[in-house]
TrEMBL record:
Major site of localization recorded for this protein: membrane
Species of the source: Pseudogemmobacter lacusdianii
Membrane topology: Multi-pass membrane protein
This protein's UniProt keywords: Cell inner membrane, Cell membrane, Membrane, Transmembrane, Transmembrane helix, Transport
Keyword Cell division found: no
Source taxonomy: Bacteria, Pseudomonadati, Pseudomonadota, Alphaproteobacteria, Rhodobacterales
Residue span, ABC transmembrane type-1 domain: 81-290
PROSITE patterns: ABC_TM1 (PS50928)
Protein name per its UniProtKB record: ABC transporter permease subunit
PANTHER family: INNER MEMBRANE ABC TRANSPORTER PERMEASE PROTEIN YDCV (PTHR43357:SF4)
TM annotation in the entry: 32-51, 87-107, 119-143, 163-183, 218-239, 272-290
Subcellular location: Cell inner membrane
InterPro entries the record matches: MetI-like, MetI-like_sf
Amino acid sequence: MQRALGDAAPVASRRIAGRNPFVRWLSDWGPALPIIVISATLLILPCLIMVRRSFAGPEGTGFTLDNWQSVLASASAWRAIGNTVMLAATVATVATLVGGPLCWMLTRMTRGWRTLHMGLLTVANNFSGIGLAFGFMAALGTYGMITLGLRSMGFDFTPPVPSGFVGLVIAYSYGFVPMYVLLTLPAMGLVRQDWWEACQCCGASRPEFWRYVGLPMLLPYLGAGWILTFTSAIGQYALPLALSNSSMPAYPLITLDMSRNMLGSLFGSQRMPVMAVILMIFAIVSLLAYRQLLKRGAKWL
């Protein structure tokens, strides 16, 4: 019976191979067609349309470089781009410095404590946008709980401007530190206890273990988490918009610039597609770097 079943598989594969090429392609890619169609409709097609609009003329037709020239020659556009990169890099660095050790501690907890903290991190990771802006104002606003509590104890505490650099970093970090921990948690499990024991047998100290074994293995994954956090922070829209109390925020960002442009501004309607394409360029470069880091980290597996 086992021999008959073993012979049936090659026969079935020969039948599929002898079919029409279209039938063979459909049998291979058929299960993935729905997700391919959805991705092409909701992701690839809008990106192509946005790229085309960034080179379109005033009437939406033709081909021109005037849109890019006007944006790249604008001081406000460069300020928004620079602010976005600075904010995203700072938030990603804070998430790495705080989330890395936290992730390591989480992997060394007992199952019960780890389950509890994983639940808290998952809730914090999904708490963003308008809700997070409201929580920030309730805690660190002019009449927030922490602000009033410190003032009642005699401290001359001035809360950070919600739409300023420091305020945005604090608000972003609440959601991105848990996200970083959840992203890098599987990588922390790669550091095995018997490796540390083997290093001890060779006379290595704990700093030497982390310098020559632990960190070289974890750095690609920590860097990959930094890149994903950086990319996600660049595209944030709801949170900085909710924390901005005027049409001109204290810390201009690309997404806020696009929002003002869509609602109507002095820059015309052709600036928004160009800024959107700049965001796509950041995302593509970041994802390529992310793949390279994962390939480097896979050498340890």
